[in-house]
């Protein structure tokens, strides 16, 4: 099974879709690509809570 086939199978098994990307971006001066992971489905069928898990390209320049 190829990567694309396995990824398609995994995506079709999700009961909820991830939130739109534009809803997850957080604008903080000096941050690069800061996003909230809230709304994504977990393996056990739950959903990641908003405001709990974040990812960012770099935190070193944050001014707040």
**Which term fits the overall shape?**
elongated
C-alpha Rg (nearest Å): 15 Å
Total beta-strand segments? 2
Distance between the termini: 47 Å
Helix content percent band: 10-25%
How many domains? The number is: 1
Question: What is the assembly state of the chains in this entry?
Answer: single chain
Taken as a percent bin, the fraction of beta residues is 5-15%
GO molecular function, one term: phosphoprotein phosphatase activity
InterPro entries: Prot-tyrosine_phosphatase-like, Tyr/Ser_Pase_IphP-type
Question: How would you describe the overall organization of this protein?
Answer:
The protein has one domain. The chain is elongated, with a radius of gyration of 15 Å. By secondary structure, it is an alpha+beta fold. Helices cover 23% and strands 6% of the residues. The chain has a two-stranded antiparallel sheet with strand order 1-2. The chain is built from 2 helices and 2 strands. The mean pLDDT is 76. GO terms for molecular function: phosphoprotein phosphatase activity.
